[in-house]
Amino acid sequence: MSSSLLTIRDLCAGYGRRRIIETLSVPAIEGGSVTALLGPNAAGKTTLLRALAGLLPMTGGLDLCGEDLTALSVAERASRVTYMPQSLPQRVALTVFEAVLAALRASPLAGMSPEGARNEAMRALERLGIADLALSSLDELSGGQRQLASLAQAIVRSPRVLLLDEPTSALDLNHQHKVMALVEEVARERGIVAIIVLHDIALACRWCKRVMVFSKGAVVADGTPEKAVTPEVLAAVYGVSARVERCSRGFLQVSVDGPA
Amino acid sequence: MTSRVPSAGSGQSEEAAGEARAWISGYDARIRRRLVILVLLSLALCASFVLDLITGPSSMGVPHALKGLFGLGELSLPQRIIIFDVRVPAAIVAILVGAALSLAGAEMQTVLNNPLASPFTLGVSSAASLGAALALVLGIGIPGVPPDWIVSGNAFLFAFASVLLLQGMARARGAGVETLVLVGIAMVFTFNALVALVQFVASQDALQQLVFWTMGSLGRASWNKLAILAFLLIILLPLSLKDAWKLTALRLGEDRARSFGINVARLRFVSLVRVSLLAGTSVAFVGTIGFIGLVGPHIARLMVGEDHRFFLPTSVLTGALLMSLASALSKVLATGVVLPVGIMTALIGVPFFIFLIFTSRERT
Ligand SMILES: Nc1ncnc2c1ncn2[C@@H]1O[C@H](COP(=O)(O)OP(=O)(O)OP(=O)(O)O)[C@@H](O)[C@H]1O
Ligand SMILES: [Mg+2]
To answer: Domain named ABC transporter: which ranges (chain A) (predicted)?
Structure first.
C-alpha cells in the first residue's frame, strides 16, 4: 500500500471567537511512520487534532493525497481520519468487544457485514493484547484498560490518518511501549499518517521518526527527534533546564535539572 | 525491552486462536441470554395482560372471568361487554403507553447522557399537564379539534412543543447536553408554576377534573387512542432500532461518536422528535404517568446492558410490563375502586427496581 501524505496549510481553529491556532502550516506529514506532537498543557494539541478530524470548525487547507478533506461530509471525513479522544470512554454497561464493534458498525458509511465487523474487532483486540478483556464491561475496568479499549476502537477503523490524543497517559511502562510499537507497526503496514500526542519525550524519541513541538498554537520545532528535541527548545517551551543525552542504544533521553 | 513487543501480523499460535474461539462463543452465549430475557419478558407481559383482563370492579369473579376468557365457561352479554369493550382496550393501552414511555425514556437517557432524564423529569409531562389544564379549566383548545379530543390535543401540543423548545434553546446557545438538561429542569418548574396558577383560578369542579387528570388513568382508553398509539410505536420503534448502533456509540462519549462519523446533533434531534411524539401522545391519552420512563430503561440496562439493539426492545418490554402490572394492581388493591394508575406505577416500580439493584450488586 502506498503511503499517505497529509498537508496542512494556513489552518485556523478555535472555540467560538477565541482563536487557538492561527494560520498553521507545516511541511507535509508522511505516512508509514509515527509523528509525535509534543507541547505543554494548553498548547493547543487537542485543538489541532480535533480540527484535523473535523470535530471543530476550522479554516484553511487540509489535503490528503490530493483529496481536499475539508470538502468531505462528516461521515466521509471520519472514514479517512480517526481521532482517539484524550478522555477515557465513559463507564457504561457495554463490553469492550461491543464498544469496538460499535466503532465499526455505527459509522454511517459502514458497508461491513456483521461477520466481517466481528472478525475485525476480534483482531484489533488481539493485536492490542486485550482479548482477555473482550467480555468485560467498561464500567468495571481500570483506567488503563479503558484507554486500551479506546485505542482498539481507533485502530479497528483502519483509517488513512490516525490521530491519537495521549493514548499512553494512563498506561504502565510495558503497555506504553507495546502501544507505541503497535502504532508504529500499523502505520508502517498500512502506510497511514499517525500523529500522536505525548507528554513523555523519551517515548516520543524512541518510537517516532518526526517530532513536532507545539507551543501557544504554533510549531516551534519540527523534524527528527535529534533536531527538534534540544535543550534550547525544552527551555523555551517548558521552561526547564534539561540535558538531552543518548542512551547506550542510541535513543535520546531527557534529564531535567530544574526550572530554567 | 523490545522483547515484550507484540508480533502481530505473524501467524497466530494455535493457543491464541483457541482463546479467540472461546470468547467469541462466550459473546454468542451472552446474545442468546439476552434473547431469552426478551422472550421471558414477553411471556410475563402476556400473563400480566390476562391478569389485567380478569380483574376489575365488577360482580364477575376472577375465576369466572378467567374461564370465560379462554372459552371454558359462559359469559353473559354484559360480562362480555365489560371484558371485551372496556377491559381489553384499557389493558392494551396500558401496554402501549408503558412501552412508549419507556422507549422515550431510554432514548432520552442516551442522547442527553443523563441517567435521570425521562419525559417526566425534563418537563414533557408538566407541559402536557399545562395543556390539559388550559383545556379543562379555561376551555382553551386548538380550534377545530372535536370536543372530546380537546384535552388530549392540548396536552399533546404542549408536550411536543416543550421538546422542540428544549431543542431550540440548546441549539441557540450552541451548548452541550448539560444545558439541555438544565433547561428541561427549568421547564418543569415553569410549567408546574403555570399549572398551579391555572388551578388557583379554577372552579371546584374543574379543579377536581384536573387533579384526576394529572394522576393518570386508563379509564380514558378507547379503540381510537389505542390505534394511534399502536401506529406510532410500529412506525417509531424500527426507526429507533435503525439508530441502535449510533446510540450505542454515543454512550461512549460525544467526541468519540462524532469521530466515528456520526452526526450527533442530528441524531439527538431526530431522537428527541421521536421522544416528543411518544411521550406527548402517551401523556395526552392517559395523563401524567411518572416513573415508567425513568425506571423502565434502568431495569432494562441492568438486565441486558447498553447494546441498544437489545437495550431498546428490552426497555419497551419492561415499561409495558410495569404499566400492565400497575393497571392490574390498581384494580385489586381496593375492592370496587380503580385507583389512578399513575399512583400505582411508582408503588410497584420502586420495589422491583430496588430488588434489581441489590441482586445485580451481589452478582458482580
Ligand atoms: N471546549 C473549549 N472551549 C473553550 N476553550 C477551550 C476548550 N477546550 C480547550 N480550550 C482552550 O484551548 C487552549 C488549548 O487547549 P487544548 O485542549 O488544545 O490543549 P492541549 O495542548 O491539548 O493541552 P493538554 O496537554 O493539557 O491536553 C487552552 O487555552 C484551552 O483553554
Ligand atoms: Mg489535550
So the answer is: 6-241
